[in-house]
Every structure is written in structure tokens, then in C-alpha cells.
Amino acid sequence: MATAVDYDRAMRVGLAAFSVVALTCAPALADPAIAFDAAAKRLFPGGAPASCTDTACLIDARYAKDAKASALARALYDATGDLAGVGPDETMDGGYRGKIHIVPELPIRGYRQHLAWVSSAMAKIDQFFTQQFPDKPPAYRWRALELGFVRSVGKHTPSAYAGSWTIVYNVEGSLLTSEDGVRETLFHELFHLNDEDHGDWSHHTLAKDYEAILDRCGKHPTMKCLAPYAPNVTVVRGGTYYAFQQDNGDSVHEYAAELAVRYFDEQSEMRRRGKLAKPAFKCGPAENARAWHALVDEFFAGQDLVPSC
Question: Where are the beta strands (DSSP E) in 141-287?
């Protein structure tokens, strides 16, 4: 049975100690890269110091008050091209979550652990793609992302949201309390970015089967009815599987992002153990198989280590 949590990876609105050494041993950065002007805005929304002419200088200047956080931010950028800066000050419409005020929050001092978790997560995601696709990368971007750290005022939602090759990360997010939770959340958000880049693929490709599942389970679907179709076990507190949570933007986006997380989990387990501990998602109902194969072909170059059903 799924554990009930407040699963707030983010309505798509328009859009464990960490080792620095481990990051610096990652593969060399490939295109694309974050432009200097974009890095300056991400790190210094009010205006960057004129003395800096490269991104490394900007990072050092922004994190000058916390040497440990500075080392993490520099190592992250050097390894994967990901830039840890700050997000916006805005009041967002969180759908079922209500209105949420978020403010910029640099991950230093008391929030430095989040930067460590993010750095570790991005290194492991980079390693996953390097191992999964040793010869030719898929049509998928996972490096050179802008990471905007924020803090929600009086709430713990959303944990993250994404758009335009940027992931906004909430240091008070309810999901972001462990390295595993951070890695799963970031992989989920990473899919949103690639889905956006592929022309809103999930809506155009998965919506028909997704709506059929919801229709089959009724206006107020039970967990029992949805369980065979849920890519992930996490549920919204007081609600349903996050993949089927309504009043959450176009919710098929979340179903697809959860399916991408399932891909990460199953492929990682196959590489680690040579078999899965539970039945493969694609071996469930016909809707699962169609969604799985479509996702794998579109985003992951048809590469699936899980044997046929």
C-alpha cells in the first residue's frame, strides 16, 4: 500500500554526505551550456558584480558567505554544467494547494544540505545516462540546467516545479527531506523540461489512454481502481496517486513524469540486480504497455533493459 505524503513535485504552471570528489570525476560537460548573462541573472537577479567576466567568478561571489556551499556549487557546475542560483519572488496559483508565496533562498548555511543533496542527485542522474547510453545519448537533456532555490512562506508546497530548462527547488518542500527524495523529485522535474522541449509530447501522446483510465475509475476514483495504472506508489495526502491528482494543471504531465521516474528505477534495478523485485510496469494493463513503449521510444532511444513480458 502506498504511503500517504504531501506529494508536491509541482503543478506544471505554464510552463548522506556529499562528496565533491565524486562530482569532479564525472564526465566532461557536453553541449548545451548556460550563457554567462543567464548565469548572472540566476545568481544575481538584482545585478551581478562588474568585476566578474566568467561564471566561476559569479558563483564564488554569490556564495562568498559560505565556503562549503561555494565548493559544492562550483563542483556541481564544473561536473554537469548545472547552475545553483535563486528562483523568483512570486505568488503562484498552486491549484489544489491554493495560493503560495515563494521567495528566493540561496542554499547556504542552514539550507546547505539541500545543495549537497541536489549536487549528489545530479551526479547520479548524469551517471545513469552515461551508463544507460554509452554510445549515443538519447534525445534528452539532463545537463546544464538552471536551479533556482526558493523558500515557500508558511507552507511546504510545492517541492519543485520546472520550465524553460530551469528547475525551481523549494528548500521547505515536504518531499525534499532525503537524498533519495531529492533525486526522485529532480528526475521527475527533468522529464517536464524534456516533455516541454518535445512539444508537450505527453498531452498529445498519452492523454487518450489517461482519460480512459480516469473514466473507467469514475468521478471519484478509488485507490484500488487506479493502483494497476499508477507508475509510482506515492500519493497526495488526503487524495490519490500523484499521477492522477486533479486540479493540478494538465495532470497527464504528472502521469508522464512519474512514468519517467519508473523508467529510472526499473533500469537502475536491472543494472544493479539483473532482475526486478516486482512486476514491470509495462507488464500490467494494456494502457501501461502503450505508455511505456511510447515513452521509451520518444525519450530513451528505445533502450529498455527489462525483458519482454
Answer: 146-152, 160-163, 166-170, 235-236
